Amino acid sequence: MRKSVLFVFLFAMIFACSPSEQELMDEGIKLLEASELEKSIEFFDRVLEKNANNTTALNAKGVALYQLKKYDAAIEAFTLSISADSTSYKPFFNRGNAYLEKKSFKEAVMDYNQANGLDPSVLDVNYNRGLALLGMESYEDAIFDFDQVIQQDPNRALAHFNKAKALLGNNDPVAAANSLVATVNLDKQNGPAYYLLGVTQMSAFGQKEEGCANLKMALSLGFSEAKTWIDDFCK
Length: 235
Description:
GO cellular component, one term: cell outer membrane
Number of strands: 0
Protein name: TPR repeat-containing protein
TPR repeats: 89-122, 123-156
Keywords: Repeat, TPR repeat
Pfam family, one: TPR_16
CATH class of the domain at 18-120: Mainly Alpha
């Protein structure tokens, strides 16, 4: 009788000490934030063993896989998260980011549209959708998204820079040059922006002196593509 009681008591203790779904989730998030990605996935999988429809665990697992550059596996996790709960913008946004990395621009834009519809206040959705639209050469739509970001966050240098790329694609070098000037004023370490500004000044406006100065700045910042232009036009 004592052995039977002891066995039941030990079994109850083991069961009671088993971590809960939330405890496993919390530990997985801590590991994810510490960039211990493989370990975090192990904890998210343990959560999913308890509850296969835990949308937060599925999304977090997708984030870890995304950071490991396992984009197809990440997309699968985000898709399962959306299937479990389609009311959050996060898995749509995250899946869009994975598609963006794969250069699947159309799929990325579709996901960013869904994310934007669920929460229009998230500027990163507009910014990343702008990048996807730029990849699709949908320049006017890309400009719109970058403008949305700039209106809310005028000091976001990369929004100005990518808007300039879209403006150049849309054959508007004057506005592009203005955006590039804004870029380098905000980020004086952006070699590609100095390069693109120098090329635009020389090719669109014949401003050799200003263009060469910006090309040389780009080269000094490590953007080696500027050297060809400098060698050919700035001697």
